[in-house]
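INTERNAL AUDIT FORM
Audit reference: QA-55
Scope: verify that the stored structure record matches its stored sequence.
Auditor: D.O.
Record contents follow.
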Amino acid sequence: MGVSGSLRAASLNTRFLHALSLACPQHIVFHIYDKLGSIPPFNVDADEKPPKAVLDWKAFLEQSDMIVLASPEYAHGISGVLKNALDWLVSDYQLLARPIAFPNISVRASIAQKQMEEILNTMGFSVIDSCSPRASTNAPLINPDLSAEEIAAHPILSLQLTAFWKAVSNFLIERAL
C-alpha cells in the first residue's frame, strides 16, 4: 500500500508512487491511498469511535503486507497531514510491527526523514532500510519535469523503480520463510 504525505496536486511524492505503481511487478498488488485530506484532525476523545474517514484509513493499511510512505519535508518537518493520519493509529495495535518502506525522493530532505523514522519506530512500525532508498545527485529517484509514465519508462529512473520492487520482493519472500 502506498501513501503520499502531500495533498498537492503536482506532488512529486505522489508522482513517485504512481511511477512505482506503473513499474510494479505482476506478483505484487500495489494500491495508493489518496484520501489523507479527508481525515479530520486527531482528537483522542474520538479515538474510541473514530470517524468513517479514519476507519477507512485503518482498513486500508490493515490490508497491507508493507506500507510505502512517500512524504515531503516542510520547514524541516514532516507533513502535517501525514502526522495527523499517523496520530489516529497510535492506539491501533493491529498495525504493530507492520513493515514500512520510506523512500526519500529529495536530495535536500534529511531532517524530516529522521523525524519520521523516530515516529514510526515509536509507534511500533518496522522501517525496512533495504526498501527505503534515499535519492542522491548520483542516484535520483524522480525527475520533476517528467510524468509518472515518463519516470517509469526513463532508462535510469526505471532502474531505480525496479531495484525498489526487487528489494520489496526479497523482503516479502524472506519474511514468509
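Auditor finding: record pair retrieved intact. The radius of gyration is 16 Å.
Action required: none
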